[in-house]
Amino acid sequence: MAARPRKNNVSVPNLYPLYSRKVNKVYWRYKHPITGKFHALGDNEEEAIAIATEANSRLAEQRTRQVLAISDRIATSKGKAITVSTWLDRYWVIQEERVKSGDIKPNTFKQKAKPVAILRERTAMKLISSVDVRDIAQILDDSISAGQPRMAQVIRSVLIDVFKEAQHFGEVPPGYNPALATKQPRRRITRQRLSLDEWKTIFEFADTHHKYLGNAMLLAIVTGQRLGDISRMKFSDVWDDHLHVVQEKTGSKVAIPLSLRCDAIGWKLKDVIARCRDYAVSPYLIHFFRATSQAERGAQVKSNTITMNFSKARDKANIDWGDGTPATFHEQRSLAERLYKEQGINTRMLLGHKTQQQTDRYHDDRGKDWVTVAY
Questions:
Q1: Which DSSP string do the residues of 111-178 spell out, in sequence order?
Q2: Is 242 annotated as catalytic?
Q3: Which residue of 16, 41, 61, 206 sits 20 to 30 Å from the alpha carbon of 7, by its own alpha carbon?
């Protein structure tokens, strides 16, 4: 016979056992802390504990929001600023509207999520106008200490925007931006550039195991475009003897002549596109040539799949990368720029950059090649 449970054995607040002598069972009930009403949860103790814990958590969040709302009403009535948490709620709605209107890209929107969450976690109850440089600097220092300098740069950039929007809506004084006053975190780039010989070695492995990966690598060198744009290229993008690319990251529109030839590898764009064609009907240049457990033949190959298999081919090539980290698929964009620069091609136009300074970053080989001294 089951023993009747003791009330003090229950550790979850608002959860109560009810022993039924008739069926010799323990049933569980949840008492709403505000209404006092009991809600039956059945006889499964684990499920009852999980439900009660979740209910307590949601009620706590609701009470926190109510406290913040009251605090904001009092602050507003006295001519003071609202809390960080309330402003971030409004800021997020603004960003959602910006995505819908095309003002910012979906990836940019997603990138803002973590910095906003961190600021909320650290300063939620503070008034937005009382967040100071020290608060932001501490957040950045934590990311840098964790070995994430790039993330620190992203956080700083997003938080600058958070306070810029707050200025626009009058929630902080004009010019008030503690994130902007912090020092820009520095990131030491350790990723190695890709040389032409290394590219050829990787290409052999890649093309042997996945023809679509070989095609993607050829397109990367011959067009100089980014991975996401290569994955999205369609045969319908070809007209008037040009491949038309609307760059996902910047929105730049680049029309690349089919006659463009990368002399270093001996391939024309027209020939690469012809190589991408398959008996399977596919709208995408980079598609699966045979069915897999995850995709049908002719389906688009997504960026993550290309990245993963490029990394595998790169590792199988057994290239010595020295003290730096191995080159990624994106490094082909830099290699393409350097190869075309030697041919006298306008690489700024090809890469879709608005300034020459952006292109010059790709031209920097980071000490990869020898510099010949002329005399």
A1: HHHHHHHHHHHHHTTSBGGG--HHHHHHHHHHHHHTT-HHHHHHHHHHHHHHHHHHHHTTSS-TT--T
A2: no
A3: 61
* Phi, psi for residue 213 in degrees, rounded to 5: -70, -40
Give yes or no for a contact between 353 and 375, defined as CB atoms under 8 angstroms apart: no
Instruction: Collapse the DSSP code of 255 into the 3-class scheme (helix H, G, I; strand E, B; otherwise coil) and give the result.
Output: strand
What is the Cα–Cα distance from 318 to 204, expressed in whole angstroms? 12
Catalytic residue chosen out of the listed positions 25, 249, 290, 366 = 249
Of 41-55, 77-91, 360-374, give the lowest mean pLDDT range.
Answer: 360-374
Verify whether residue 284 is a known catalytic residue: no
Among candidate residues 112, 193, 210, 226, the one labeled active-site is: 226
> Number of helices and strands (H, E) in the chain?
13, 8
Q: Rounded to whole angstroms, how far apart are CA atoms 25 and 19?
A: 6
249 as an active site residue: the answer is yes
Average pLDDT on 117-121 reads 92
Set 112, 261, 314, 333: catalytic member: 333
Q: What's the predicted TM-score (pTM) here?
A: 0.59
pLDDT, one tens digit per residue, over 37-82 is 788 778 888 888 888 888 888 777 776 666 556 555 555 544 456 8
3-state DSSP assignment of residue 262: strand
Q: With contact defined as beta carbons under 8 Å apart, do 215 and 331 qualify?
A: no
Q: DSSP for 91-118?
A: HHHHHHHHHHHTSS-HHHHHHHHHHHHH
User: What is residue 371's predicted lDDT score, i.e. its pLDDT?
Assistant: 38
Annotated catalytic residue, options 31, 98, 330, 368: 330
Q: Give me the pLDDT at residue 57, please.
A: 81
Instruction: Assess whether 333 carries a catalytic annotation.
Output: yes
Q: Which amino acid is at 370?
A: W
Rounded mean pLDDT of 206-229? 92
